[in-house]
Design goal:
By secondary structure, the chain is an alpha+beta fold. The protein has four helices and 13 strands. It has a domain of about 140 residues: tt1808, chain A. The protein has a six-stranded mixed sheet with strand order 4-7-8-9-10-11. It has a three-stranded mixed sheet with strand order 1-13-12.
């Protein structure tokens, strides 16, 4: 078992990430991965690739466009800390990767970008996300504006396309929730334990350490 070590960070200012202009119908039926009213404009990944870069994050769930701004400082620090923990843990396992943000897509109309994506690369040469053979864990760090989007939409979308487990780290409540494929979502206790599907090695993370030094 490997127990993660966390170095606290002192904060000066904090910018809370907010989801703006996201199409989030609260009473939409859900017949597919992301059921939405058929009257909504549907996009494809090819159309998304033609959008000019403007600093926002554009994602598609069943063709419905979700737009969120660049994340804030508090979000970035927690994502970086988690990424560093997983990278150090997986250095001993060739062929694994830790990417932030990651990309999970299913053409023609699903592309999501988890804050962290952890998994295994397939054999042989090549580049890009097509090389990913196994998606073990997707992590979303959610502010007040993105919590519902991450919980009610993206989480189930990841699981539907084969991600084995999803974590949601809530900045506002200082809580972590995990949902393995085939199970309901559970709130983590004082510690998060994750086992590598490749080696069986276990990583233990203290939940409180992820929020150490952040403003109350």
């Amino acid at each position: 078992m490997v127990r993660a070590q966390f170095v606290p960070v002192t904060w000066i200012t904090v910018t809370e990430p907010i989801v703006r202009d996201a199409e989030l119908p609260t009473l939409a039926p859900r017949p597919q991965i992301m059921g939405m009213p058929v009257t909504l404009r549907r996009y494809t990944i090819d159309e998304l690739d033609e959008f000019p870069p403007d600093g926002n994050r554009y994602e598609l769930l069943d063709g419905v466009l979700f737009v969120s701004p660049a994340p804030g400082l508090e979000h970035g620090i927690v994502v970086f800390a988690l990424g560093a923990i997983f990278r150090e843990f997986l250095l001993a396992e060739p062929g694994t990767f830790v990417a932030g943000p990651g990309v999970v897509e299913l053409r023609p109309s699903l592309r999501m970008e988890p804050d962290l994506l952890i998994g295994r690369l397939g054999p042989g040469p090549g580049s890009g996300w097509d090389r990913v053979s196994e998606r073990w864990l997707a992590i979303e760090v959610s502010g007040a504006g993105s919590r519902i989007y991450d919980r009610d939409y993206k989480r189930d979308g990841y699981l539907a396309v084969g991600v084995r487990e999803v974590w949601r780290v809530e900045l506002e409540t200082r809580k972590v929730f995990r949902r393995p494929a085939g199970h309901g979502e559970l709130e983590a206790g004082n510690e998060l334990a994750w086992r590598s599907p490749a080696s069986g090695r276990e990583l233990v993370i203290r939940v409180a350490d992820l929020f150490e030094g952040l403003p109350t």
